[in-house]
Amino acid sequence: MHFRIEGKGEKVCYVPVATNTQRLIQRYLEVAEHGEDLEGPLFRSVSNNTRKQRKALSPPAVYQDIVKRYGKEVGITVDVHGFCVHSRRATAATNALAHNADIAKVQEWPGYANVSTTRIYDKRRMRPEESPTAAS
To answer: Comparing C-alpha atoms, which of 130, 117, 122 is closest to residue 102?
Structure first.
């Protein structure tokens, strides 16, 4: 399974989905009742909390209504330094690289134009065990 992500400048990228996340999405689709619509958006708007829509949530709605809302529920607010869209992209890139993803592929996922931007998030070179001088 992968996500098809439409980003700025009409860029499209595909991001693989972890097995645990796939199970959670399957459960969500069962509850949301639109799992059969493979061409439609995953997260959709709702009118008056009753009528389901086919329209995708807008990017501001995702941030305001989902990320900030659930972040607040677990104690993460905008007061937390770095809690923004860019930090989530950076975290995803860092995690992928930490789990041995190919840096060229990681560059594609968040839509970075240059691999040098992706290298900023590559913390492997800062870990002593990853150093070329580390004993085998």
So the answer is: 122
Q: List all residues 6 or more positions away from 53 whose beta carbon is below 8 Å from its beta carbon.
A: 44, 45, 46, 47
Q: Which amino acid, residue 126? A: M
Non-local CB neighbours of 2 within 8 Å, separated by 6+ positions: 14, 15, 16, 17
User: What tens digit of pLDDT does each residue of 68-87 get?
Assistant: 888 888 887 767 666 766 77
Mark residue 82 as left, alpha or beta (left: phi above 0; alpha: psi -120 to 50; beta: remaining).
left
3 closest CA partner among 27, 28, 53, 38: 38
> β-strands 44-47, 51-56: how paired?
antiparallel
Tokens of 9: 């400048």
* pTM higher than the cut 0.85: no
